[in-house]
Design goal:
With 1295 residues, this protein is α+β, with helices and mostly antiparallel strands. 34% of the residues lie in helices and 20% in strands. It is built from 33 helices and 37 strands. Strands 31-30-29-28-32-33-34 form a seven-stranded antiparallel beta sheet. Strands 4, 5, 6, 8 and 9 form a five-stranded antiparallel beta sheet that branches. A four-stranded antiparallel beta sheet has the order 7-1-13-10, with helices on one face. A hairpin with a 4-residue loop joins strand 30 and strand 31. Helix 30 packs across helix 33. It is extended, with a radius of gyration of 45 Å. It starts with 19 loop residues before the first helix and ends with a strand. 24% of the residues are buried. This is C2 domain-containing protein. InterPro entries: CC2D2AN-C2, CEP76_C, CEPT76/DRC7_peptidase-like_dom, DUF5523, Tectonic-like_complex_comp. Keywords: Coiled coil.
């Protein structure tokens, strides 16, 4: 029951007024407490509340007249402080007179934002000449030459210190060589800079500077120089031989010791193995440990001294660093006698620059203890960028000097720019204005000022080259000539504060002991001798963390000051505190594994779960890696084509490391989108569009593939990932010649007897009884191979079968690493092969012909299609109709439409036709593809140009999101380059030029040459990075590239041939995003696939190009803004602005960008002998592989057929794999008349032997069990720069 105190007569008070809504909220909140909030409720069930403290009437407490004692105010008279340590005399009104004189003499700019290019070169030439004069005055080279000449004489006299004198002589010769090299390089730089300066003056046709260089030649005697050279070379060779022989003796002793240990270990192991064979159970633990012990490496005999090679190296070094015999001595003399061109005779831009120089004013502020005390008047800048003040400012001081600072300002129209803060050293008491000398203080500023008119700017890139290459960035720098000293009164008394006491009260001395700038000046801090002397006098604590940097810097200064300390500093990198020595770290196998994995070596970069102990590592972990290293060392010593390819791979590896290093640095530059992830605001228009899909009618016969969920790499298991293929249909498959006669009979519709048809067909029919009107034309099926796993479809019927089958292939990756970087680096290929299944009669006894049937199935290869795995992964799916690569000669088959011709001889004629397969490929489950690189890389392009290009690209991408627009790309240096710089006419290879073909024939030939350069996707070379574009010379040097490199090189060749060519960026099947070359051929347009050498007309319905995004050349970039994107539906008139939007137009004219391509390509002829050796090696290797694959069956090789094939392969190379003449085909069939031949030629670029073996294995030629003999021929056509076209003809023969 509630209790109400008011009813019991107790005083409660008036509760404060609170709204019932607030009370209900509070009560409800308290009821959810663990104890139901019982302590907050009263006995009446209401919330406890104190009485309302507010009163209705105001009241005031009683105040007495007496004042509280603690509030009384006591007056005390002000007393001056006895001594203030900030002031020299202890007070601001001291009686002493102290004065500093600051002399601001002049400012000379060594670089200014109004410098012209000629000023930059003149300043550089002046600095080089000053270095030359300083070195000439020191004359260190001549001193060392004389020292080298006299040291051998001293060595002969002093046999006691022979070893030390030999070492000192070698060291002196090394120093002398360095000094000579520096002198010669300095002279070269002076002459080169002077030539650049003269070329700038000739180009601009006026002079800005009075610099003039004269080179005086002094003729020398060639005979005396040669005699001197020979003597020095022989002396140096003798010294090197002495050093080598001394080291050779030590290495020979070490070799004998290692050889002795190696032989003992091998002998002991051989003895233990014999014991193991006799009594394995009785082996002791020591014997087992000896057998399991790792084998020692067999020592290598040290090499002997090669006098001839050493002499050549010494001679080559002398040629590089010394004056040649008979070469005159050069003595440069720099003067200021050149005439400066008057302003009125200069161009308008130069006149504006000189006018800006005259308007620029400079002044200096003087700050004492961080307070401005004076400033110079603003004086204009002269044309030689000097400002002369010549004033002395008297500073009367009352405080101890803590700092004296000069601030240099440049007066501009809208304000003053601070250029530099310079601290002057507080002068010693002995430095007065009568004895002080001017001091030069260097200054620099990070102020960024863009270039105007003919100026080069400050902090912005500029170049001397017209093409915009070799850019540099210079900051505003200069020299201030000034001095600070104590003043002297009329009596000659220095106005210096008293310095007799060094007590703590002397603030000036205490401050000088703690601040090096105040003690020895800003220039003294740079001088290590002065700094070390101040460090000794100040007696700073070296263990103080604040002095750590200073102690570390002075630690390398070998002075007595730092060596005679009574204290030491604990260095964390001292050898005594290392956990392991360098030798132990080098031989530790686990540390080696971690290092190789960190360096992303292919064999170890995906290695997971490294064991914690070295003993847990597998014994053969590094065996494969070391074998490859030894193979590379062996290839380095040879001089064949494989050695050249190895050098190419090493160059590509260096480029890869350089690019990946730059990209890693760029990835640290985060954007706002990388840190802040916000949901995209939904578009209302898309919502209504999606609502309309619910009302669309269902179409069961036209299903739409749904978007699948992407799976992360961590959520995937190895056995779950598969490659799915949906083979739909094939068309235009060649048919068997054995069925051609019957097919012809039905097509002609005439009443011909089968005997006539049999005679017409010839050897295709054995006799009339074997001809069946309903025998199959062809029984095709498709076999897919990936990572040596194969699946196949069922057998179709006829040349246009329909399969509609789904195939699955497992995907295996290294170490089960399904990350995007690892998947991109996979270079596996999906081989899709088209076969004809034939029923072969195995009965050899005619008596059993009517009662017993012995048959077996065999397959004949008809063509193939190769799709890299990286293409499937990056595109997530590939869907379309693909052209099958069929061989130019396919014996025993002919196309069906050739039968419809009236001439019966065309039955046996190989005409050019195409076979197509319609299919769909994807990866299940769908893996996450790498996100495009969004970092903004460094660039040398104009900022306005890049902003305009980004705006152009963004506007077109918003309208057509499926199309590719690419105004700028990334080069191998990791810099953003405008795409038009990659196009320039380049000379074609000399061996193709010497053929003297027509323009069309030359175009076909260079397209074939480009297609023979190996194709390597950028995702394999640079995994995890964006698309990298290399120049044509880099492409030919690396001998590897993707679609862009092939297309750019082919387009530049076409431009050299006079064709109107463009680079097309779009999408094609099966490549996905790709690059083609577009050429105008009269009223037609051809699309060239530079990776295969094929071309297609834009009217061709089977053209692989599906989406056209943009086209470009050396002048402009045109974006496709048409409603259609397929070539057959498009208008290729780039002048039509309603169909193509150029990036350069009237609103933004072309800046006429230069090309980054070389002036001309350098070609090196390939050694034919090396190509022939490689040809024989490939042929023998393939024969051995086929015999290994047929290990259960005897493999015989037919030399006669091989010889026939070798004659045919050069003809196929001449025709670039196209159809050969009727004469050659008839001759080939006549020579093969005694055999039933099933074979084909294959053409591909040479990458390595494994690629060739994999291509031959995928054809399944080794599975022909009924073949009695085999024939294999290889031909290599060597183009310039080691570009190799490899032809392989393989066939099975049955009599």
């Amino acid at each position: 029951m509630p209790r109400f105190l008011e009813e019991e007569g107790l005083y409660v008070g008036v509760r404060p007024s609170v709204a019932n809504r607030n009370l209900n909220k509070m009560e409800n909140r308290l009821l959810h407490e663990p104890d139901k909030g019982r302590k907050w409720f009263g006995e009446d069930g209401r919330l406890k509340a104190l009485p309302d403290p507010l009163k209705k009437n105001p009241s005031r407490p009683f105040m007495t007249d007496e004042q509280e004692p603690y509030l009384e105010t006591v007056f005390r008279k002000a007393v001056m402080r006895e001594f203030d340590y900030r002031y020299i005399d202890g007070a601001i009104d001291g009686t002493g007179r102290y004065q500093l004189d600051a002399d601001i003499n002049s400012i000379v700019f060594s670089h200014h934002h109004l410098f012209s290019r000629e000023h930059v070169l003149a300043t550089r030439l002046t600095d080089l000449y000053q270095d030359y004069l300083a070195r000439k005055k020191k004359n260190m080279t001549e001193f060392l030459i004389e020292k080298v000449h006299i040291l051998p004489i001293i060595t002969l006299c002093c046999q006691k210190f022979l070893f030390k004198l030999h070492c000192f002589c070698r060291h002196t010769r090394t120093v002398k060589d360095k000094e000579e090299e520096m002198d010669r390089q300095l002279l070269k730089n002076i002459i080169h800079t002077w030539k650049e300066l003269k070329s700038i003056r000739e180009f601009q046709n006026y002079n800005n500077t009075p610099i003039k260089l004269q080179v005086i030649k002094e003729e020398t005697s060639k005979k005396e120089d040669q005699l001197h050279w020979k003597q020095e070379i022989e002396e140096e060779v003798g010294e090197l031989q002495e050093d080598f022989e001394e080291n050779y003796r030590k290495e020979l002793e070490r070799y004998k010791e290692d050889l002795d240990r190696y032989e003992k270990q091998q002998a002991a192991k051989a003895q233990e193995k014999k014991k193991k064979k006799i009594k394995e159970k009785e082996m002791s633990a020591a014997d087992r440990e000896l057998l399991n012990e790792e084998d020692l490496l067999q020592p290598v005999m040290p090499e002997t001294f090669d006098v001839k090679l050493t002499r050549e190296k010494v001679k080559a070094k002398a040629m590089a660093i010394r004056r040649r015999p008979g070469e005159p001595k050069l003595f440069p003399e720099l003067s200021n006698t050149a005439t400066i061109t008057p302003t009125n005779q200069c161009p308008r831009g130069e006149q504006q620059r000189r006018d800006d120089v005259s308007k620029t004013k400079v002044f200096v502020k003087i700050l004492f203890n961080d307070k401005e005390v004076s400033r110079t008047p603003s004086k204009p800048l002269s044309q030689d960028f000097r400002v002369t003040f010549g004033q002395i400012y008297n500073l009367k001081i009352v405080q101890w000097p803590e700092s004296i600072k000069f601030q240099i300002f440049e007066a501009r129209a809208l304000g003053n720019d601070l250029l530099a803060d310079l601290y002057a050293g507080i002068p010693d008491p002995s430095v007065t204005s009568q004895s002080v000398q001017l001091e030069e203080m260097d200054f620099s500023t990070d102020l960024k000022i863009d270039k105007t008119n003919e100026g080069v700017g400050s902090g912005v890139p500029f170049t001397f080259d017209v093409h915009g290459t070799n850019t540099m960035i210079l900051m505003t720098t200069g020299i201030l000539c000034s001095s600070v000293a104590w003043a002297v009164d009329s009596d000659g008394t220095p106005l210096v504060p008293p310095t007799t006491s060094i007590a703590p009260t002397n603030y000036y001395n205490a401050m000088k002991m703690m601040d090096p700038v105040a003690a020895i000046g800003a220039s003294g801090v740079v001088d290590l001798d002065k700094l070390a002397k101040w460090f000794q006098e100040s007696r700073l604590d070296p263990n103080d963390p604040n002095n750590a940097d200073l102690v570390f810097m002075l630690g390398s200064k070998s002075t007595n000051v730092m060596q005679s300390r009574d204290f030491f500093r604990l260095e964390q990198l001292q050898q005594e505190f290392d956990l392991a020595t360098d030798e132990e770290m080098a031989i530790n196998r686990r540390f080696r594994l971690l290092t190789l994995r960190d360096n992303e070596i292919p064999e170890f970069k995906n290695y997971k779960m490294a064991p914690a102990y070295e003993r847990e590592l597998p014994r053969d972990l590094f065996m494969e890696y070391e074998r490859k290293q030894r193979e590379e060392e062996r290839i380095k010593e040879t001089e064949d084509i494989e050695a050249h390819r190895a050098a190419v791979n090493r160059f590509m590896q260096r480029v890869r490391e350089q690019v990946m290093r730059r990209f890693r640095l760029a990835q640290h530059q985060k954007r706002l989108e990388d840190v802040v992830i916000e949901e995209v605001v939904p578009n209302i228009g898309i919502v209504f569009t999606r609502l309309l899909h619910f009302g669309e009618p269902r179409r069961p016969l036209r299903p739409i593939r749904k978007e699948r969920k992407k799976v992360t790499a961590t959520a995937v298991r190895g056995e779950q990932v598969k490659i799915l293929l949906n083979i739909i249909r094939a068309s235009s498959i060649p048919i068997r010649k054995s069925a051609a006669g019957c097919l012809l009979y039905w097509h002609q519709g005439r009443a011909k007897s089968l005997s006539k048809v049999s005679k017409s067909v010839g050897s295709s029919f054995d006799n009339q009884e074997q001809i069946l009107l309903f025998q199959p034309l062809v029984r095709p099926y498709i076999e897919v191979m990936f990572q040596r796993n194969t699946v196949r479809t069922s057998v179709g019927d006829g040349p246009n079968p329909s399969f509609n089958e789904e195939l699955e292939l497992p995907l295996k990756v290294t170490n089960d690493d399904y990350s995007s970087n690892n998947l991109q680096s996979m270079n596996d290929i999906v081989y899709i092969n088209l076969f004809d299944e034939m029923v072969v009669d195995m009965s050899h006894d005619d008596r059993e012909k009517g009662t017993v049937v012995h048959q077996k199935l065999e397959k004949k290869w008809l063509g193939s299609l190769e799709i890299p795995f990286s293409t499937i992964y990056l595109n997530t799916k590939i869907d379309g109709t693909f052209r099958v690569n069929t061989p130019p000669v396919l014996l025993g088959y002919v196309y069906e439409d050739a039968m419809k011709r009236s001439d019966l001889e065309s039955v046996l004629t190989k005409t050019e036709h195409n076979t197509y397969i319609s299919m769909f490929l994807t990866i299940e489950p769908q893996l996450i593809t790498p996100e495009p690189v969004r970092e903004r890389f460094s660039t040398n392009e104009d900022e306005k140009l890049l902003l305009h290009a980004e705006k152009w690209q963004q506007e077109l991408t918003n309208k057509h999101p499926k199309r590719l627009y690419k105004p700028s790309v990334i080069d191998v240096n990791g810099k953003s380059v405008f795409v038009t710089r990659y196009f320039k006419p380049l000379n074609i290879p000399d061996d193709i030029k010497d053929l003297n073909l027509t323009t069309e024939g030359t175009a076909e030939r260079v397209a074939h040459y480009v297609s023979m350069i190996p194709f390597v996707s950028d995702t394999v070379v640079f995994p995890g990075l964006c698309d990298i574009w290399s120049t044509c010379d880099q492409f030919l040097r690396m001998l590897a590239g993707d679609e862009e490199e092939h297309a750019v090189l082919l387009m530049n060749y076409f431009l050299h041939l006079g064709k109107r060519a463009y680079l097309l960026i779009g999408s094609a099947i099966p490549e996905g995003p790709t690059a083609y070359v577009l050429t105008e051929e009269g009223s037609d347009f051809w699309f060239w696939n530079a990776s295969t050498g094929e071309h297609f007309s834009y009217h061709d319905s089977n053209c692989p190009v599906q989406v056209v995004g943009c086209i470009m050349n050396q002048d402009n970039v045109w974006g496709n803004i048409q409603s259609y994107e397929k070539p057959v539906q498009m208008d290729f008139n780039i002048a039509n602005t309603s169909a193509w939007r150029p990036i350069f137009s009237r609103s933004y004219p072309s800046p006429m960008l230069g090309s980054i391509q070389p002036e001309m390509l350098q070609y090196v002829a390939t050694d034919k002998k090396h190509a022939e050796d490689l040809q024989e090696r490939i042929e023998q290797h393939l024969k051995n592989k086929i015999m290994d694959w047929r290990s259960r069956t005897l493999t015989r090789w037919n030399r006669h057929c091989t010889k026939i094939m070798r004659k045919l392969l050069p003809i196929l190379e001449e025709s670039r794999g196209q159809e050969i003449s009727q004469h050659h085909l008839e001759e080939l069939e006549k020579q093969f008349s005694a055999y039933k031949v099933s074979g084909f030629p294959m053409n591909m670029p040479f990458v390595d032997l494994e690629k060739l073996v994999e291509a031959v294995f995928s054809t399944g030629v080794h599975t022909q069990e009924s073949a009695e003999e085999f024939a294999l021929a290889v031909y290599i056509h060597a183009y310039n720069n080691s570009v190799l076209s490899v032809w392989i003809y393989v066939a099975s023969l049955t009599k």
